[in-house]
Design brief:
Layout lengths: L1 H48 L5 E2 L9 E2 L6 E2 L8 E6 L16 E6 L5 E8 L15 H8 L4 E4 L4 H9 L3 E4 L8 E2 L9 E2 L2 H13 L11 E2 L10 E6 L6 E7 L4 E6 L2 E2 L9 E2 L1 E6 L2 E3 L6 E3 L3 E9 L2 E9 L7 E3 L7 E2 L4 E6 L5 E4 L2
Parallel strand pairs: 4-7, 5-24, 7-8, 11-23, 17-24
Antiparallel strand pairs: 1-3, 2-3, 4-6, 5-6, 9-10, 12-13, 12-25, 13-14, 14-15, 14-16, 17-20, 18-19, 20-21, 21-22
């Protein structure tokens, strides 16, 4: 009987130990599950609260951002040798207001016929611009500026000189005459001031060419400032083309720390209602001559000459240099050092005589 009792106690003790092990195991599993749930919740909250901005002019402390080679702005990621689109934009009074030019990282304005200027607006492939235009015809000197980036030179026809230069040169060309699917005509304006495109349509064309073996472009980059100015100043200057409908001013807005484009003392806006701003405005003075009875012009794009660079409300006399058509147009101080540009958007005004520039001191 004693032995029987002993066996019962032994079984009871073994059962208790097994129960304790089971409880201990379940407790450990529960602790692990709670830990995992807490860590997952913290991760979700952190991810939700993480800043979403991907572009800035100055990196946050400890940020691992890099400079965009085209704008000098700090970004999370740079696409190496990104394709550039160079689009000929109509500046005729009947073409205003234009679309998309506020988003171009660089705009070059130069004279064409009848005292009317035209714009070459540059966009990078990682920008999304839904409407760009109105688009007009090519001129030979704009071809040289497009070659700086190996840009997709986008236009609607062109002068004989420009088309010959495109045909015999290395221009990556997109002429609406032969590639109509990349363009559309707006119904709210009369021809020829109603042709438009978008970065999506231009990107689709570029992708097809790259898939067929076209290499990525190579181009030089400017130097950009790494610090912000301690002081900025109110300032205003005017660029006068020979037709009075084409007298444009740039006024420095101290509050926004940017130049604002003006016409007849009114802020110029795009058709979408966006103001046109620039962080740098450079004025290039070069040789401009009339070459035919229609009034078409030749504009010297290579070599060097006098320039003025406006930044932060100040005017600096400089030298522009462009050794060859395919090299970048750059600006240099009088001591020969290359000028540093403000990160952001730049406009270049090309004129034939210094008298067309009127700097109004504040």
């Amino acid at each position: 009987m004693g032995e029987n009792m002993f066996q019962k106690l032994k079984h009871k003790y073994a059962h208790a130990r097994a129960s304790q092990k089971k409880i201990w195991l379940l407790t450990c599993v529960g602790i692990v599950l709670v830990f995992l749930i807490v860590m997952t919740a913290l991760f979700v909250v952190r991810s939700h609260n993480k800043p979403t901005s991907s572009v800035s002019s100055v990196p946050e402390s400890g940020a691992t951002q890099v400079r965009d080679p085209l704008t000098g702005m700090f970004v999370d990621q740079v696409h190496a040798n990104q394709q550039v689109y160079g689009v000929m934009i109509d500046e005729h009074v009947d073409a205003r207001p234009q679309s998309g030019i506020d988003q171009a990282f660089l705009v070059i304005e130069a004279p064409v016929e009848a005292g009317i200027p035209r714009l070459l607006a540059f966009f990078s492939q990682d920008e999304k611009v839904d409407k760009i235009g109105p688009i007009r015809s090519a001129r030979p000197y704009y071809v040289d500026w497009a070659l700086e980036f190996g840009a997709l030179y986008t236009h609607v026809g062109g002068s004989n000189e420009a088309l010959d230069k495109i045909t015999t040169g290395a221009t990556f060309d997109l002429n609406q005459f032969w590639h109509d699917p990349q363009f559309w005509r707006s119904t709210d304006r009369d021809a020829p001031h109603n042709v438009y495109t978008s970065t999506d349509r231009l990107g689709a064309y570029v992708k097809a060419k790259q898939d067929a073996g076209r290499p990525a472009p190579l181009y030089g980059v400017w130097k950009f400032k790494t610090t912000k100015p301690e002081e900025v100043f109110p300032s205003r200057f005017t660029i006068s083309y020979t037709n009075p409908d084409y007298v444009f001013s740039w006024g420095y807005d101290v509050a926004q720390k940017t130049y604002v484009r003006l016409f007849d003392d009114q802020i110029m806006k795009t058709k979408e209602g966006n103001e046109i701003h620039a962080d740098n405005v450079a004025v290039v003075i070069t040789d401009v001559a009339v070459i035919d009875t229609y009034g078409r012009k030749s504009v010297r794009t290579t070599g060097q000459g006098t320039a003025y660079v406006f930044q932060d409300g100040t005017k600096t006399e400089a030298i522009w240099k462009k050794p060859t058509a395919s090299e970048r147009l750059r600006f240099f101080n009088k001591d020969g050092t290359e000028m540093e540009m403000n990160p952001g958007h730049t406009w270049i005004e090309v004129i034939g005589d210094e008298s067309q520039l009127n700097h109004l001191e504040p």
